[in-house]
Structures are given as structure tokens and as C-alpha cells.
Amino acid sequence: MVGKTVIITGGNCGIGFETAKNLADRGARVIIACRSIKRGSAATKEIIKATGNKDVEYRQLDLASFRSVREFCENILKTEKRLDVLINNAAAGGLGNYKTEDGNHVGMQVNYFGPFLLTNILLPLLKSSAPSRIINVSSAIHKYGEMDFENLNMEKYWSDYLVYANSKLYLNLMTLELSRRLRGTNVTVNALHPGVAATNIFRNIKSDILRNIVLIVLNFLYKSVWEAAQTSIYLAVAPEIQNVSGRYFSNCQEATPSKLSRDPEIAERLWKESEKIVKLSFQ
């Protein structure tokens, strides 16, 4: 990865941190994008210390704010000559039921609409840096998502679980439609299920007791954070998938997502609706 630039959202902790550290260890220039200045700066220092790679930076990005996304992208386009890998890793659960300053459900914006806008604004740089890769960190929970175009922002009904499942389903559909739009550009886009791991994605659970129980169970039954990061790393570096696009991976191999995730008509319609929601034509 020497000579290549990587942006990873949520690279300050959990799966994102392990992914960022691995890619930095391979010689990449790594830009960690997250909301917390304190956590982002601390993660950057820790990765530099662990890898000896000083070309690791933190830049603030709040996916709950389209203004922040645009400012982040504007800064990247001014300072970076290339972008070889974009990893949409950041996600959150248990955020509650309220709207952002942009009028969207907070969980849907952080997990889907924010990454959708971010990816679209950075596409010109990805194309000029080709061959390049976009990696969307989804989840097997997408299989429980619903496709209701009248409830894209939880306007009719909501639950924290549905927000997470729907946002991951939408990421899969975004992957499918974007791969179609990127044909012939030498830019690929793939989604993945990292495996369930005890990361701080559960930090927003209000009950300390419940949160601790969840983490204990996950630590006992499922992957370590290091293990969960391996598929993201694989999609970023593996030469054998350089020309593979629009697919879904798990455990470093191609897997089959839900039937909804593979519907090109729904994917195209969701893309058009998402463009309206993020006001893409007004960027």
C-alpha cells in the first residue's frame, strides 16, 4: 500500500481502528475521519507509534451533518492528489429517534445518507486515482431490513433495530447501483459483513447493565475486533479482486446478500431518492 491514500470513517476505534492500523503498517497514507477530535487524535498517535508510519492523519467528520461532510470533502479535494481506497466504516446504533439539522433521522443519516453524500463528492478524486476501491461496511443484519420508500427516514414507524437493519440494506443497494454507474472507470465498490464483534458501536445503549451484558456475550461468542477487520482489509488490498465490483463479502470471500440487496430496480430508485435527500445536485 506504499504510495496509496486511504480514507476510513470511524477509524478511531473498533473495526475501523484495526483496519486503519493494518493499512498504515502496509505503508499507506491513512486519513482517519471521525467526529471526536479527542478520540481521532489519540487513535492517530497510537497507530503512528504502533506502525512507525508517520503518514497518518486525523480529520474531523460528523456524518450527522451534511455541512460537515461537505467541509470534510472540500478539504480533502484541496489537499489530496489521490484517493485509492475509501472505506465507509463508521456506523452507530441506539442513537434514538430524532432528526438532524438536515431534517433526517439521525441513525439513517449517520449510517447511510452521510456516507452516500461523502462517497459521491469524493468520486472525482477516486476516478482520477484509478484503479481505486470503495468499501462499504454493511452487516448481515441487513437481511432484516425493510424497503419502504415512504419510510426512508423512519417517517411512519421506527425502532433502533430497524434503523440499523435498514441502513445496512441501503448500503448494499448503494453498492449495487454505484457499481453499475462506475462501469468502465476502473473504480470498484463492494460491501461486506465484518462479523459480529464487541466494538463501541453499542456505546449508545442507555442501560450500563444491558450494554455490559451485550459486550460480555459478544466477547464470548463472536469474533475479536481484529478478526472482524480482516474482510475490510482484504477488500482494500487483495489483488485478485481488483476488477470485482458490486459484490458482498463475508470472511474474506464472496457471499450472498438478501434478495432485496440484489434488486437493481430498487437500487436505482433508492439512489435517486437518496440524491434528493442529500441535495446532491446542490453540492
TrEMBL record:
<dbReference type="InterPro" id="IPR002347">
    <property type="entry name" value="SDR_fam"/>
</dbReference>
<dbReference type="InterPro" id="IPR020904">
    <property type="entry name" value="Sc_DH/Rdtase_CS"/>
</dbReference>
<dbReference type="InterPro" id="IPR036291">
    <property type="entry name" value="NAD(P)-bd_dom_sf"/>
</dbReference>
<keyword id="KW-0560">Oxidoreductase</keyword>
<dbReference type="GO" id="GO:0016491">
    <property type="term" value="F:oxidoreductase activity"/>
</dbReference>
<dbReference type="Pfam" id="PF00106">
    <property type="entry name" value="adh_short"/>
</dbReference>
<protein>
    <recommendedName>
        <fullName>Retinol dehydrogenase 13</fullName>
    </recommendedName>
</protein>
